[in-house]
Specification:
Shape: globular
Bound molecules: dioxothiomolybdenum(VI) ion
CATH superfamily of the largest domain: Aldehyde oxidase/xanthine dehydrogenase, a/b hammerhead
CATH architecture of the largest domain: Alpha-Beta Complex
Number of strands: 31
Strand content: 15-25%
Length: about 750
């Protein structure tokens, strides 16, 4: 097989090509704004040019005079929209800042929307709308005057007496780290199209959570959820930015209702930086106490995370950093810093990317201090229990290190910084761990199986590029004993049974588990009526061999059997909230996705990996290159080696981007993003990514969920930035503790 389709090893599925691959490469796949609606009007957003202030007057005369303009919406005529509860878990709004004025709380806040017969007319009018704003001086970031520190409600793991253990330690390390603001920038822009039919509305919007979109939009416009249908067959990238209801959606729905005509909005690339969420900047203080043999007796991690004035959004990655190794004692703390910025939100591996960057940089610094190989330092601190005594369900970290180190040639490394050279290029080799909690959410699915051996699977899951259609097709094929070509998979529509949010790397585990359950129910009915039993699920996921059920179906007197299944992972328990017991399945139907697993399950459930990076830094110019990267990952059962490799590859590339390229720059005087476009927001291009190797390490874990899948969507971009930073130190002797690592940071006297 070719590199894109690795041979399955133990507990891995075949590299089936993506079911939707042909649709995508032929342009047949319809994204939300491609969906045909009758006679649409076009919308263009008006956004605030200042970060803080009050709108004192609006003059729309020139804007309304633009030919083709149908109406203009501002805070003066949008009071019908309800205020949603801010709810970072989905179901509510992505931000509390949902009004379009008169109060302005961040730069780029939506303050109006023009709707016209053409996109061009709407855009022209948007630039002619005049807003008078009484401006106040905003606070932009951590070091600005006027920011407020507060404690978000976040779990802060603690075990033993970490301070005393630190004081008593033979070797002490202390370090500060920082990560910048980042924006997802999916290729598909933020779009919303709404069409009403009497009192019912259909919304076409790229979404990571169909039932969240349906229910939260219903609340926003004040209709019953059954009056809303949300459709999102394909999503052109999301990475966390399309998981929650953002303010634009209600506005488009209101406009379509008022005009009695479908309205289509495609926000611009620069608007995308302020009308949705982003990865907040973070700061970290790490303190580690260790024995001379490297055994860590004390780990302390304090994190600070930037957020908006009203919302306590925090990722709190100490939950994961505190458990990655068998620390003797741990103490953690998370703080929010509130500034005049839009509310941040999920971005690929939200808690772990910044917090594990800090931890894995500190591990490398400690290894140098101890004169120890960084891989051996991880080995000394590897173990099946965390500091609180909780056990891992499975843990293959050192297998990943060993496989990746061998493939990379780590044993040839000279540990001395600056010692490896090739002409004018300083060579650096570095490594770091990747880790991501294994989550799973409640899910429901419907499966039909017909006498002709064709199956149809219905689940409101999300094809955000991850391959959910394909892996759901594979699990149905495997359970029903039919070829994957015989399975039709329908996703991305709120009329289908609900799937959890396509976030937290939950989709494959949750959807495959419930689809397997529905298939098993069909098998049970067939077997009870004399059918040939389906082939037992095999170690290696394969496509089924032929099963002839015609006689069984004939005996049953039906052409098709249908089963609906629901599955609530055992870690997701009904919660006694204010005396009420909330059923997780009911919560899912009403647009709230409760996730179980990770550090909250009976055992610690995590996927793990190890990444090794070579960097080359030019002796004089300090230009930084990454000629090769090797990652090895273990994540339970791998459904499809092709889509898995693709996920890991994308993750590592993003990790390199985090390390060397990406940062949303902010003008501190105005709390305004200055590089809100794809020319100045720097991301890697093909020439930046050279050799990239993905190693799939076999692992079996039957505890995590019925299908043994850990989830991989967010694993591989964790740790990469630290591996690159560690390699840069090895090349140059310069330790950069604030991402991204740009060449000016490596200029030494
Ligand atoms: Mo992902 S950031 O959990 O969509």
């Amino acid at each position: 097989m070719n590199r894109a389709a690795p041979d399955p090893k133990q507990n891995m599925g075949k590299p089936e090509p993506r079911l939707e691959g042909r649709l995508k490469v032929t342009g047949e796949a319809r994204y939300a704004s491609d969906m045909p609606v009758n006679n649409p009007a076009f919308a263009f957003l008006i956004t605030s040019p200042v970060a803080k202030g009050q709108i004192t007057a609006i003059d729309l005369a020139d804007a309304k005079a633009v030919p083709g303009v149908l109406d203009i919406f501002t805070h003066e005529n949008t009071g019908d929209l309800k205020h949603l509860k801010y709810d970072p878990q989905g179901g509510g709004g992505s931000t509390s800042i949902q009004d379009f004025g008169p109060k302005i709380q961040h730069d780029g806040q939506i303050i109006g929307m023009v709707v016209a017969d053409t996109y061009e007319a709407a855009r022209e009018a948007a630039y002619k709308a005049k807003f008078e704003i009484a401006t106040e001086k905003p606070s932009a970031g951590f070091h600005s005057e006027g920011v407020k520190e507060a404690s978000p409600k976040k779990s802060e793991p603690k075990a033993g007496d970490a301070e005393k253990a630190f004081d008593d330690a033979a070797v002490k390390f202390e370090g500060w780290y920082g990560t910048p603001t980042q924006h997802h920038n999916p290729i598909e822009l933020f779009t919303t199209t709404v069409a009403w039919n009497n009192d019912e509305l259909t919304v076409y919007e790229p979404s990571q959570f169909m039932y969240g979109l349906k229910n939260s939009l219903a609340s926003k416009v004040g209709v019953k959820p059954e009056k809303v249908r949300a459709i999102s067959h394909f999503v052109g990238g999301a990475f966390g930015s399309k998981a929650q209801l953002t303010p634009r959606t209600g506005l488009v729905a209101l406009a379509a209702k008022r005009l009695n005509r479908p309205v289509k909005l495609v926000a611009t690339r620069d608007q995308g930086f302020t009308i949705a969420t982003y990865r907040a900047e973070t700061q970290h203080k790490i303190r580690i106490g260790a024995q001379r043999d490297g055994k860590i007796t004390s780990f302390q991690h304090q994190g600070w995370e930037l957020t908006s004035r009203p919302d306590a959004y925090a990722v709190g990655g100490v939950e994961d950093s505190a458990r990655l190794y068998s620390f003797g004692a741990v103490k953690t703390d998370v703080k929010n810093v509130h500034a005049d910025r839009n509310t941040p939100g999920f971005m690929r591996s939200p808690p772990v990317v910044p917090y594990i960057y800090a931890l894995e940089s500190a591990m490398d610094e400690l290894a140098y201090q101890l004169k120890m190989d960084p891989v051996e330092l991880r080995r000394v601190n590897d173990g099946m229990k965390d500091a609180t005594g909780k056990e891992w369900s499975s843990r293959s970290l050192m297998q990943c290190y060993d496989e990746a180190a061998a493939a990379f040639g780590w044993s040839k490394r000279n540990a001395e910084p600056g010692s490896m050279r090739d002409g004018d290029w300083l060579i650096g080799w570095g490594c770091a761990s990747a880790v991501y909690p294994t989550h799973m959410g409640p899910a429901a699915a419907r499966v039909q199986f017909s006498a002709d051996g064709q199956a149809r699977v219905q689940i409101a899951a999300h094809e955000i590029g991850t391959g959910i259609l394909t892996v759901v097709g594979q699990i149905a094929a495997e359970r029903l004993g039919i070829p994957v070509e015989n399975v039709r998979v329908e996703v991305g529509d709120s009329v289908l049974p609900p799937a959890p949010v396509a976030g937290g790397s939950t989709q494959t585990a949750s959807c495959c588990s419930v689809v397997a359950k529905a298939c098993d129910a069909i098998n049970a009915r067939l077997n009870a009526n004399g059918g040939t039993p389906a082939p037992a699920p095999r170690e290696t996921v394969g496509t089924g061999t032929g099963r002839n059920h015609e006689e069984t179906f004939a005996r049953l007197g039906v052409a098709t059997l249908e089963e609906y299944a629901e599955q609530v992972p055992k870690e997701v328990k009904p919660n006694p909230v204010m005396g009420l017991v909330v059923d997780p399945m009911k919560k899912l139907y009403s647009g709230s996705s409760m996730l179980g697993g990770g550090s909250h399950a009976e055992k610690l459930m995590y996927a793990l990996g190890a990444e090794f990076v070579e960097v080359r830094v030019h002796r004089l110019t300090r230009e930084i290159r990454v000629p090769r990267i090797v990652g090895a990952f273990a994540a339970g059962r791998i459904m499809n080696t092709r889509t898995a490799r693709s996920q890991y590859m994308g993750g590592m590339i993003w990790g390199i981007s985090s390390a060397l390229h990406e940062a949303t720059e902010i003008d501190p005087r105005y709390a305004r993003y200055t590089n809100d476009n794809l020319a100045d927001y720097i991301i890697p291009v093909n020439a930046d990514i050279q050799q990239l190797e993905v190693i799939l390490v076999p692992e079996k874990d039957d505890l995590v969920n019925p299908v043994g899948v850990k989830g991989i969507g967010e694993l591989a971009n964790v740790g990469t930035a630290a591996a690159v930073a560690n390699a840069v130190f090895h090349a140059t002797g310069v330790r950069v503790r604030e991402l991204p690592i740009r060449l000016e940071k490596l200029l030494t006297a």
